[in-house]
Amino acid sequence: MKHMKKSLAVLLALVMLLCAAPTASASIQPVEGADMTVDWDGVIEAMRRVYLNPAGEVDLTPFNIPDTQANRDYLKKINLSLPEMVQFFADVFRFNSENGIITTGKGGVYRYTDYLEYTEKYDPIVFAIDSILYGIKDNDALSDVDKCLLVHDRLAAWTAYDYDRFLADAEPLVSHFAEGALSLRTCVCDGYAYAYMWMMDYLGIECYRIVDMPSESHAWNEVFLDGEAYFVDVTWDDPVYDVPGRVTHNNFMLSYPTFSASHWSGAGEYDTSPSSTLYENYFSRNAESEIVLIDNTMYFLANGAKLYSRTPDGTITYIRQMENTYSYQAGDTTYTVTPGGRRIIAIGDEVLYLAPRTVQAYNVRTGDLRTVCTPSKSFFPDDNDFLYGIRQQDGVVYITANNSPNFSSDTVKLHTSAFSYCTHPTKVPCRAATHPAGCRTPSNATTICPACRKVFQDTTPDPNNHLFTKTVAGTEPGCYNVGYTEGQQCEACKQYVSGHEELPITHVIEIRDAREATCTNTGYTGTEYCTRCHQRIAVGQHLPSLGHTDPDENGNCTRCGAHIADPAQPEPQQPQPQGSCKWCGKDHGGAFGWLVKLFHNLFASIFGAKY
Predict the structure, then answer these.
(1) What are the backbone dihedrals phi and psi of residue 496, each rounded to the nearest 5 degrees, phi first?
(2) Contact predicate 104/15, CB 8 Å
């Protein structure tokens, strides 16, 4: 693999170095001189906790990791052992020589993409892992080395190296992650290494991703079995150009001397500890095909398309010679060739074998051999075209013809056909879901077909189940916009599940020109103005004058004190009537008294008597 772009190398080699497996700091021997006062387990736990909320973040600065070469080496030893960080984005490490603190990116904060993007990418990877690990995980009949071998083969058969884009220096970033290997089924060496490490983590087998130092031009894995270290390179055992179903075993469980003899010498810049040669002559070295598993027994081709079985106790049994020659007539001459396809896959109780121009199925229970597919003559336009590739995906078998077992980018003579083979007669519970159905996403895988390992997933979201929520601070209302109280918002559907109550538009009111009504002047309740937006909000009401109250003894208004009347005077005494005159109350005497009395009586009759 050629030299990566520097930015990509820094991102992949440095940014995630603080991650580790659940027992990494306990099982990995610390680098001499590393500061063991650092809470390395706390660092690991902090990173794992954040996975529970893919939109979360974790700040690693509180761990105060001193910037020393030994600590850097120890971080590399821990080396990306949490491959769940498929959708992890951050800046590179920053080493502050002044305070001796290692931080990551901007202030030591790790950030994920949003929840929907995370689950859309994460779930297909989990389904792929379920399929690859089916029959291997929790299988006590298999040894750890055989589990490593089966995962190695299944991953190589599952994935194709992103060779054309790599040669053009155009491979996307996803090809460097487990997502490329498992979900998209195309990647470069980083993708193989991340995916293999992740699956080893599920199996409880200590495994790390190794980078060729200092060139950072290749990645592979280091696996620990019974305290011994071994190198595994799935990339080099899935040769380019990819041929469907082709798996080799030359780079499985090697010591450092053997590994470095064929790989870059830079391997030693990272780790030279693998010294055991225990598995360098393991039975898999002679296998000519993918090693498949049926009922705890492994099946493979070796020694010229001979089919063998190997039981968990290590017993290898020869079964039969498979068809590997083909004869055809050209004029008067009969030609016999041995194309060398030699690929197998397993579906149910059958090993499907790729003969030169047919697909045959061997039943491991009955021993029956039958032909299940014979492509038409047009599928082989040239006498030198034969079947060289076979793979299965979800019960569909794909076969590929070519004029050479060594494929290239020239696909003119490359032909692919497919036929359904597995009807998924049964489904069994799959690995427990990593999350239930959410408001926008279905739950994780629930069942799997034991025959072809197709994973069946729940496709129905639960609109009432909001898996991840975040607190959104409240906002104050303004003159032109409503406000909201603090609320809990779902990160997937963006709905608020609590709080977030609307607060109406609010002005900051000031009353101007208000005056009270007096006895003689009108009043005014005042005009309302907003001191924030400077608008007149409401006009007040005019109030009528109150008028004076009744005067007091001094003639003054009791409200305003104004003088409104003179002091009260006593009424003059009216004379008491002395006579009989009804008008003046007197007795009229004298010479003319009678005349006065006459007129007074007339007045009294007209105007009313006074007395």
Answers:
(1) -95, 125
(2) yes
> What is the secondary structure of 78-103 as a DSSP string?
H-S--TTGGGEE---EEEETTTTEEE
Q: Are 58 and 49 in contact (CB under 8 A)?
A: yes
* C-alpha 484, offset from chain centre: 28
pLDDT average, residue stretch 392-418: 82
- The CATH number of 116-286, from 1.20.1260, 3.10.620, 3.40.1710, 1.10.240, is 3.10.620
Query: Given 3-state DSSP classes, what are the helix, strand and coil percentages for the chain, each rounded to the nearest 5?
Result: 20, 25, 50
* Threshold 0.85, pTM exceeds: no
SS3 at position 475: strand
Instruction: Determine the pLDDT at residue 107.
Output: 38
Is the confidence at residue 483, as pLDDT, over 50?
yes
List 379's β-bridge partners, or say none: none
State the Cα–Cα distance between residues 544 and 13, nearest whole angstrom.
85
- Concatenated DSSP letters of 234-303: TTTTSPSSP-TT----TTSSB-HHHHHHHS-TTHHHH-------TTTT-GGGG--S--EEETTEEEEEET
Nearest-angstrom CA–CA distance, 139 and 151? 13
Beta 469-472 vs 483-484: how paired, if at all?
unpaired
Beta bridge partners of 337: 326
